[in-house]
Amino acid sequence: MPDFDVDESVLGGPPSQAGRLAVAVSGGADSFSLLHKLYTEGYDILALTVNHGLRPEAAKEAEKVASWCGSHSIPHWTLRWEGEKPQTGIQAAARKARYHLLIKACQREAIDRLVTAHHQDDQAETVLMRLRRGSGLGLAAIRAEVKVASADGGPLTLARPLLTTARRSQLLAYAEHHNLPFVHDPSNDDDRFERIRMRALLAALEQQELLMPKALSQTAAQLQAVDDQRHRHILDDAERAGVDFTPSGGVKLHHPGRATDLPALLQALAHALGKGEGIPLSFFQNLPAQGRRVSYGVEVMADKGQLWLIREAAQAVGRADGTSGVEKQLVTTRPLLWDDHFVLHPPKGFSQNSYWAPLGAYLPQNIATTTLKRRALCSLPCLVENGQVTHILIIAQEDILRALTGWKGAEEFLNNIQFFEGRNIVPEKFYHRVIWY
């Protein structure tokens, strides 16, 4: 009889020890097989299906999952991606929306472990895709456990119990044997997508015994161990260098010279700031003893033996060549993840016409960029109504006041300003590698 194993260690243990699990079920053979396996082994499950609204068949597919779950007394929710869909980058946007919805559902039910059916073939394809880009330690690829969060609550564990234990063919055979009503997603045959092309390439290489998914999976596991060791070293360097995360979202290094690998530390900090992807180590090497270096969406400023790392001001407010900055967003009653940087909580009694925007867009340009402290304000969120700033982030209040000291228009600008609550998530991303959606 077709079967496969699950890694109980990432599920929190066997059914008698693990708490309630949320299982993402798309309706395909992989996720349906995982759902069935966990159900038959006695795990306490909430099944979650996301309807992205991108295909007319999606609603019926979600209904199939719901019907099967109902006949087996498994609680099931269908989560819908509402609103307009982007014209480009649809797969990336759909993935982000999917995890956001899944995490919010877990938080509503106080479930601290979200389970997905990523398997060994997914891992192998990811390694190949990243190898194509020359990703270095990015070849560590998919992890069996990571911390994820959305603006609505604290982090939870994303668990992938099939990553090293099962292959796509095993899961398909299992689903067919148990007559599970799985569906075939046509996007899995669409070679416009890089992953589908890599899947075909890997199948051809495996057929010739030139490259096996197991070997690629083992490579990822070894590089994960290397990456973990590197991360521990970076955290030790952060302590030696006196890393200090400012309320306005920047980073100050009181003793950068004490770090044993300063470029690696700065690269990791830039990544936590939300602009570290693709920044080469060379950008952080041979930094001037005084002055600034700006590129890749970050600014490094050296002054009197200390270093500052902030988001580049133009990255927030836009560039002269027409490149847009951080987009305005209408305020709702829900918390908001702002620019992968802050979690914002709307104030009571906000106007329906209010929107979130970068503070730098509402400061005169000749003021916003004159000093480091003022440039650091540019990526801060603020609340705007009728073109006027009405609320600023309360945790950054002192930073804002100090930065604007000396500007003649500061009193008028800050007159009758109110405050909203929010939290800087950069430290969590740096220290605990939490991925926010």
Question: What's the helix and strand layout?
Answer:
Blueprint: E1 21-24, H1 29-41, E2 45-51, H2 58-71, E3 76-80, H3 90-108, E4 113-115, H4 120-132, E5 145-149, E6 156-159, H5 168-177, H6 194-207, H7 213-241, E7 243-245, E8 251-253, H8 262-272, E9 291-295, E10 298-303, E11 306-311, H9 313-317, E12 329-330, E13 336-338, E14 342-345, E15 355-358, H10 365-368, H11 372-377, E16 381-385, E17 388-393, H12 397-404, H13 410-414, E18 418-424, H14 426-432, E19 435-436
Parallel strand pairs: 1-2, 1-4, 2-3, 4-6, 5-19, 17-18
Antiparallel strand pairs: 5-6, 7-8, 8-11, 9-10, 10-11, 12-15, 13-14, 14-18, 15-16, 16-17
Task: Characterize the structure shown.
The chain is of the alpha/beta class. Helix content is 36%, strand content 19%. It contains 14 helices and 19 strands. It has helices spanning 29-41, 58-71, 90-108, 120-132, 168-177, 194-207, 213-241, 262-272, 313-317, 365-368, 372-377, 397-404, 410-414, 426-432; strands at residues 21-24, 45-51, 76-80, 113-115, 145-149, 156-159, 243-245, 251-253, 291-295, 298-303, 306-311, 329-330, 336-338, 342-345, 355-358, 381-385, 388-393, 418-424, 435-436. The strands form 3 sheets. It has a 7-stranded mixed β-sheet, sandwiched between helices. Strand 10 (298-303) and strand 11 (306-311) form a beta hairpin. Helix 4 crosses helix 6. The longest helix is centred in the middle third of the chain and has 29 residues, at 213-241. The protein is globular. The two termini are 39 Å apart.
